[in-house]
Design goal:
Elements: H1 9-15, H2 19-35, H3 39-46, H4 51-65, H5 69-77, H6 82-101, H7 107-135, H8 138-166, H9 171-194, H10 201-208, H11 219-228, H12 230-246, H13 251-275, H14 281-302, H15 310-339, H16 345-370, H17 375-395
Helix pairs in contact: 2-8, 2-9, 3-4, 4-7, 5-7, 5-16, 6-7, 6-9, 7-16, 8-13, 8-15, 11-16, 11-17, 12-13, 12-15, 12-16, 13-15, 14-15, 14-17
InterPro entries: MFS, MFS_trans_sf, MFS_Transporters
Membrane topology: Multi-pass membrane protein
Pfam families: MFS_1
């Protein structure tokens, strides 16, 4: 097992699964960035589906993809690691192939493609976290998870930028982007499978003496995670909605907030995770809730500012929100990997991904429902819910059997 106390690039790469696996992560993220932000546009312009039908099919695909998580968890607990990661990428290759083969005007082929893309997108985080937990432990594992998130955000950003440049080519360019995404997923799957990382659950069971121990329930952590996940959709959904529809600001401000969020995550995720390693993971997770709640209060305070001041103020407060997001991302999954015994790690991560996927699925609907009711309804509700979640995380006591949650 690798250990890591400072950010050393070579040690970070080893703790992340090795050079080939890191390249696989980068290629996978690049491919995802090429298509995911424009999947709705693909359905509307290439397949000539209505926007509501396309959006509904995408949402159903995301939610239905969560159904596979219990099976993914059991597969991981049988020792599979790189195989599950590669499978999550190959499933998305199938989704892209169906997307390319879908005839115009037919919603079911698009919905099936969205389903396979959703399965791959939901299965990947748990499989990746399990792989990293197999090759690294302690704070090295936390830093490797943070490094993968930074790398993924960078790949997504580059892919989205390339796709934006290509959009001038019309429907042909969108089909080309989809094909490029499929090839990227295929190459990433081959690289991920080639690292041949496999756990030894039988050894873990022999050490613990517990053959049928269930995965830890983590009820409080899973519940608060649903609320914490809202922070991931604030820069993409809540702030553009407020800036454009309520403050009547230029869309440039929304783009600036999104770019700033991406750049901050890429540059700060690893250093912040390393700096915060002096504190327990649970403390950092609770702190992230306080920072997020403070940012929501900041949005509430600056929204009433006069025209010309509100948009820059919202952009400035969004930096605080991103810091909270970085603290959350650097501690939440790391806490799960520390809580769960090795032989039930897959099921624990699968449950955590279920809560994450559910939060990501419901947050757009809740945000868009609260926003028309005014800033107090939106930001006040998010502040209250996040503060209660932070309190629940900070005050929860670990059981004696799982006392290594630090």
């Amino acid at each position: 097992m690798a250990t890591l106390t400072r950010v050393r690039p070579r040690a970070l790469v080893r703790a992340s699964g090795g050079p080939r696996y890191v390249v696989a992560l980068a290629v996978d993220a690049l491919g995802t960035g090429l298509l995911r932000p424009f999947l709705l546009l693909y359905g509307v312009t290439v397949l000539r589906l209505s926007a509501p039908v396309t959006g509904t099919a995408m949402t159903v695909g995301i939610v239905a993809g969560l159904v596979c998580m219990p099976a993914v968890g059991r597969w991981l607990d049988h020792g599979a690691r790189s195989t599950v990661v590669a499978a999550s990428m190959l499933v998305r290759v199938l989704g892209v192939a169906l997307l390319l083969a879908a005839p115009a005007g037919h919603v079911w082929p698009f919905a099936t493609a969205a389903l396979f893309l959703g399965i791959g997108n939901q299965a990947w985080p748990a499989a990746h976290a399990a792989l990293v937990a197999t090759v690294a432990d302690g704070r090295a594992r936390d830093t490797a998870l943070a490094g993968a998130r930074a790398l993924r955000n960078a790949g997504l950003g580059v892919g989205a930028l390339l796709a934006t440049v290509c959009l001038a080519g019309g429907t042909g360019a969108l089909r080309g982007l989809a094909a490029g995404t499929g090839l990227a997923y295929l190459a990433a799957a081959a690289l991920a499978w080639s690292v041949h990382v496999h756990a030894r659950p039988a050894h873990a069971t022999a050490v613990t003496g517990r053959h049928d121990e269930p995965a830890p329930r983590m009820s409080a952590l899973l519940a608060v995670n649903v609320i914490y996940v809202f922070c991931l959709n604030v820069p993409e959904i809540a702030l553009p909605l407020v800036l454009v529809t309520q403050l009547h600001a230029s869309p440039v401000w929304s783009a600036a907030v999104f770019v700033a969020n991406t750049v901050l995550v890429v540059t700060l995720q690893v250093p912040v995770t390393v700096v915060m390693s002096r504190f327990s993971r649970r403390t950092v997770l609770a702190l992230s809730g306080l920072v997020l709640a403070a940012s929501y209060l900041g949005f509430l305070a600056v929204t009433p500012l006069g025209h010309g001041w509100a948009a820059p103020a919202v952009a400035a407060v969004s930096v605080v929100c991103t810091i909270g997001e970085i603290l959350y991302a650097g501690s939440a999954t790391a806490l799960v990997t520390a809580v769960a015994p090795a032989h039930v790690l897959g099921r624990a991560l699968a449950r955590f991904q279920l809560s994450t996927g559910f939060g990501l699925a419901v947050s757009p609907a809740i945000i868009t429902a609260l926003a028309p009711l005014g800033p107090a309804a939106l930001w006040g509700s998010l502040t209250t819910a996040t503060l209660l979640s932070a309190f629940a995380v900070g005050t929860e006591k670990s059981s004696p059997a799982r006392c290594t949650v630090t």
